Amino acid sequence: MKKTRVFAGLMLVFAAVLPALAGCGARETSAAAMWNGTMDTLASGRIVVSNPATGMWDEATAWSVVEELRIGTLDDIGPDMFGRVTDLEVDAWGRFWVFEGQAQELRVFDRDGAHVRTIGREGGGPGEFARVIGISWAPDGNLWTVDPSNARISIIDTAGTYVGSHGTVGGWMIVPWPGGVDTEGRFWNFAPDMSSADPNIVMIAYDDDLNPLDTVQVPEYPGEREVFELRNESSHMITGVPFTPSLEWRFDPRGYMWFMLTGDYSITQLSLEGDTLRTITREFEPLPVTQADIDSAMTGFEWFIRNGGKVDPSRIPGTKPATEEFLFDDEGNIWVLPVTSRAEEGRVVDIFDPEGRYMGQIQLPFQLSTNPPPVFRDGYIYAVTEDELEVPYIVRARIEKPM
């Protein structure tokens, strides 16, 4: 097992980018004629991509997304009625594998949305689930279900048969689950790093027998997080200050880690050896935090205040973060969910190509959930959405890309 690698330079990445450009950098020529950004290579080898607020798409080249199929119901009780979708996968036949979190069971639907079978039930026995947080097609070709409450990964074959399990670290949970399988066939899962008094999260690569192969430590937000705290003899509760920036991170199955600072629209790519490879920024206009925003946020603290917590509205910043979350499709394009000022029927998404050039913005025909994250496969997006009553549905939508 390799030594744990730590991204020690992350706190310096974002502050050092712009000053460094003045002293070292070879300007690269963009291959996209309509792109008005810049791509510079620093002496360290880091590529810095600076995007304007406007992308390079026009009406003829802009992508669109068309919903083709929706699975779910509000009125009928059956396998297509979901309470909470924990995770979603799609197999080579286009079948949907949906883990239903309230029932703790795995439901399979064919490519036309018809229910095929339901697998497992809540419990601790073989083939039963306690609290699954993620599912993934593993190196052995089977579906692995990550179940920390049972301290194991249960293995389900493509026929829906329980074939065994692997023991794993129990108790620790991250939702949405950040793991998966990389292009080398290694299975990645998270675990606490207990080597320090204040445990951090590490990502560990395993082979198909769950033998550890490699470890990468995940850094935390570079700076002090703004939180409201409640401490007493029996508990310690922490809740974030609304509209303060955060650091969002994702494991990239191509062999990278990515981090996004939501406050300044900055995305950074790192190798698994800890080297900073690329930083992507986009110009944006900060949106103000209105009094209506503050009033709405304060209603969410009622439980905290009832338990004795103190909430100071003056600590809420005057502007909102630029972004909320980001994703990758199977071609390496980056899908960023920006903070917007308007209420949309479908989610607005900023799209960047694999090099980091801002292509443009699309509006999905549905609200997109990133918990669980969607699956991108061969020009389609498979995702969870919710209606106005917060009832979950599964959608399949076609990504149309004009030639």
Provide structural commentary.
- The protein has a seven-stranded mixed β-sheet, with helices on one face. It has a five-stranded mixed β-sheet with strand order 1-17-16-15-14, with no helix packed on it. A four-stranded antiparallel β-sheet has the order 5-30-29-28, with no helix packed on it.
- The longest helix has 14 residues, at 10-23.
- It has helices at 10-23, 291-299, 302-306; strands at 5-6, 26-28, 38-41, 47-51, 64-71, 85-90, 96-100, 105-109, 115-119, 134-137, 143-147, 152-156, 162-167, 180-181, 187-193, 200-206, 212-217, 227-231, 236-240, 247-252, 256-261, 266-271, 276-282, 323-328, 334-338, 348-352, 358-363, 375-377, 380-386, 392-400.
- The protein has 403 residues and is mostly beta strands.
- Helix content is 7%, strand content 40%.
- It is globular, with a radius of gyration of 22 Å.
- A hairpin with a 5-residue loop joins strand 26 (348-352) and strand 27.
- It has three helices and 30 strands.
- Residues 1-31 have low confidence and may be disordered.
- It has a domain at 62-218 and 374-403: Neuraminidase, CATH 2.120.10.30.
